[in-house]
Amino acid sequence: AQSVTQPDIHITVSEGASLELRCNYSYGATPYLFWYVQSPGQGLQLLLKYFSGDTLVQGIKGFEAEFKRSQSSFNLRKPSVHWSDAAEYFCAAQGGKLIFGQGTELSVKP
Amino acid sequence: DTAVSQTPKYLVTQMGNDKSIKCEQNLGHDTMYWYKQDSKKFLKIMFSYNNKELIINETVPNRFSPKSPDKAHLNLHINSLELGDSAVYFCASSQTGAVMGTDTQYFGPGTRLTVL
């Protein structure tokens, strides 16, 4: 069955520290991959997407993600986290329907 | 300019009532979706319409009935509300919604439904 897994339910990082959020997918073929962010009480905003080509994808707000076919992963990274990055982050894969991971809640401490 | 909008933002109602949530997109997209986000923040698709035609219908109770008067609108009507229907409902839209398309989905702000 198609699935997306985000192993970390909650991550806390210090402001200014680097961030990596993990995402693994299980699909018959490589799906299209997305990262969305949901700020408290808000809808989902698209951070970035991967369809094909360069495996390092740049997104908004200084985020990037790297697609690794051998590991079936699409991890999200940011070199320096800001307090405003505190939110829920969802990885999603599309091979027909859009399937979401469970989400990772990011807390940022001063 | 709001791309995907939903009304109302909050909806509190009693068990057994019937309620509707409205969604509108001004992106000119052909496909619209309804998702349910449960209390654990898990998001799952419920329905998808392409040019007013139902193309995805997940195993959702018959009490839920989507209606698309035109391709810019997709409303969700829920009959006989139950406690378990309490969730955040998100509307989304995409350009073509092809089965293996590259179409990015854009989400509305969500409607928080609370059933008492």
Sheet-strand content of chain B, in percent, reads over 45%
Biggest beta-sheet profile of chain B: 7 strands, mixed
Mean pLDDT of chain B: 90
Number of helices of chain B: 0
Cα-atom radius of gyration of chain B: 13 Å
Class per helix and strand makeup of chain B: mainly beta
- The count of DSSP E runs of length 2 or more, i.e. the number of strands of chain A, is 12
User: Which protein chains are joined by the largest interface, and how many residues does each one contribute?
Assistant: A-B, 21 and 22 residues
Oligomer status = heterodimer
Q: Please trace the helix and strand order of chain B, writing H or E for each element.
A: EEEEEEEEEEE
Task: Write structural notes for this entry.
The complex is a heterodimer of chains A (110) and B (116). Chain A has 110 residues and is mainly β. Helix content of chain A is 0%, strand content 54%. Chain A contains no helices and twelve strands. Chain A has strands at 3-5, 10-14, 19-21, 24-26, 32-38, 44-50, 56-58, 64-68, 73-78, 87-94, 98-100, 104-109. In chain A, the strands form three sheets. In chain A, strands 2, 5, 6, 10, 11 and 12 form a six-stranded mixed beta sheet that branches. Chain A has a four-stranded antiparallel beta sheet with strand order 3-9-8-7, with no helix packed on it. In chain A, strand 8 (64-68) and strand 9 form a beta hairpin. In chain A, 34% of the residues are buried. By secondary structure, chain B is mostly beta strands. Chain B has no helices and eleven strands. Chain B has strands spanning 4-7, 10-13, 19-25, 31-37, 43-50, 53-57, 64-70, 73-78, 87-94, 106-107, 111-115. In chain B, strands 2, 4, 5, 6, 9, 10 and 11 form a seven-stranded mixed beta sheet that branches. Chain A binds chain B through residues 32, 34, 36, 38, 42-46, 49, 51, 88, 90, 94-98, 100, 102-103, and chain B through 4, 33, 40-45, 48, 56, 90, 99-102, 104-110.
